[in-house]
Amino acid sequence: MTNNSDATAVQRERDSEVAKVQILGAPVSRLTMRQAVEIVRRAWKGDAAFHVVTANAEMLYRCSKDQILAKIVAAADLVTADGAGVVLASKILGSPVPQRVAGFDLMTECLKEAAAVAVPVFFLGSHPQSLQQAMANARSYYPNLNVVGGHHGYFAEDEEEKILEQIIKLKPSLLLVALGVPKQEKWIFKYKEKLPPCVVIGVGGSFDVLAGKARRAPVWMQRAGLEWFYRFLKEPSRLGRILLLPLFLLAVFAQALKQRLFS
Ligand code: UDP
Question: How far is the CA of 208 from the centre of ligand 1 (A)?
Answer without folding.
Answer: 9
